[in-house]
Amino acid sequence: MEELQTNTAEMITAGQAMLTELQQLAVAYSFSVLGAIILLIIGYIAANLLERSVYSGMKRFRGFDETLRKFFSKIVRYAVLVLVGVTVLAQFGVQTASIIAALGAIGLAIGLALQGTLQNIAAGIMLLVLRPFRVGEAITAGGISGTVEEIGLFATELKTADGLYVLAPNSQLWGTPVTNFSRNATRSNDLAVGISYRDDIQLAQATMLKLVGDDERVLEEPAPAFFVSQLADNSIIVTTRYWTSSANWWQTKLDLTKAVRLTFDAKGISVPLPQQQVLYVPTETPKAAPSKTASPRTASRTRRPKTDK
Known about the structure:
A 5-stranded antiparallel beta sheet has the order 4-3-2-1-5. The protein has 8 helices and 8 strands. It has 3 domains: about 10-115, Helix Hairpins; about 130-180, SH3 type barrels; about 185-265, Alpha-Beta Plaits. Helix 1 runs antiparallel to helix 2. With about 300 residues, the chain is of the alpha+beta class. It is elongated and about 145 Å long. Strand 2 and strand 3 form a beta hairpin. The longest helix is centred in the first third of the chain and has 58 residues, at about 1-60.
């Protein structure tokens, strides 16, 4: 009985000691916990405000794309949150130097593992900043041709002339020369046709210049120009150079090419096809050598043996 009372008293004493220790810990860390909560709230609000400020500030400059504005504003937001998290851990006595070193090592490992992906991101940022092409423009780059549908941080979406979907990595587009067919407002085109050497060049010149000049899509300045570009084997290549808007370039080229053919046929100007002249020179046949064998007529002649009378 006395032993039971002794054990009960010891348990009560241990419980009271634990409660006292917990109270001391609560008092000791209450200010740290309260400070951490306040830091988290302030840091969260500051991160959101900085994100909006960076987004609004970049929006004032036309050189920054929408995707690029969101990307940099998110980077600022998460950088502030990471800084707040490290500061909160420091409030509880955690060695932040080791945490920062670990984060740096993790970042380096991720960077090495995602080297190709990071190249695409860097190329995407350069494409969005320098803007060699925009959404809706027709380009050729890295062996790919099409109309730009969307420019992302990792890849660019294009649509080919025959309606195919192409997803091109940004590093491929950034690492090769880019030809933009839609950037300039106007473009020139050379309308080249071959005529016969017997045809009148002056008539061909007047016909082509009138045909090009009557098209409303052809610009008056620079004025269309006519010249003989080549004296080919089978024809004279005559060319008319004209300027039109980039939006009408392709359809104007198709229409004028067809119209030149029909107009030349109506005016009797021929468009010769490639010809090849083959000369046949007969050679003398060699005389046959006399045969050493006896002819049938000669062979039929036989000598009769002499008989005694």
